[in-house]
Amino acid sequence: MKVGIHPENYRVVAFKDMSNEDVFLTKSTADTSETIEVDGVEYPLVKLEISRTSHPYYTGKSKLVDTAGRIDKFKNKYAKFKK
Question: The pTM is what?
Fold first, then answer.
């Protein structure tokens, strides 16, 4: 392997799923300015929109999130094509 191409700042980082508050620890080089305390130890924090604990593929649950009525707008627009 080539020398000097891999980052040197690997450290344990906490990733937090904001949809269900799940927190997991793993090594990462992700830059972050926030921290979180887990089991009495403070870690850098990276916030996630979705993770393995909330993604429909892994959970088997489909969750429909309607932002600004887009689904209703779509249904109304294409209702005239319904047979």
Answer: 0.62
